[in-house]
Design goal:
It is a single chain. This protein is mainly beta. It has a single domain, classed as Hexapeptide repeat proteins (UDP N-Acetylglucosamine Acyltransferase, domain 1), CATH 2.160.10. The chain is globular. Pfam families: Hexapep. This is Gamma carbonic anhydrase family protein.
Length: 177
Amino acid sequence: MDHLQPYQGILPSVGKHCYLDPSAVLVGDIQIADEVSIWPLVAARGDVNTITIGARTNIQDGTVLHVTRKSQNNPQGNPLIIGEDVTVGHKCMLHGCTLGNRILVGMGAIIMDGAIIEDDVFIGAGSLVPPNKTFESGFLYVGNPAKKVRPLKEAEMAFLKQSAINYIDLKNDYLQE
């Protein structure tokens, strides 16, 4: 898999039953759990910090995953941590942030350094989550900057898990090709 590239001798680690599109580029200290799908043209650089992607998460086409380096003002830097059953829509930018479990990040959204997105959250397409913001579990957030709009409905909460299942099924189809 030449789309997995080392950085300073560290190669991405990939769990079982994952689909990594051949056009995706994954560099350095990246840990990918089981049943993850990484779709076309994803760029992930775990060079100056770490990237962790939880089980059953899908990272869709054209998304950029990156981190913040360690510095005197920020001794730990900001790794990128993505939880389980997360759907990251097309052309998103996730930079040194933390996402919990069962989150849907809408197409084109940007989540910046130090932001924390708790479990069971929808982030609307095109939204901008500013640095160091915490988004509370169970809500829809939209806008630039993104703001809490309303609690998630029961059907939306169920869809968070269903979206991950849909991408597991699709990934499995691709693995059989």
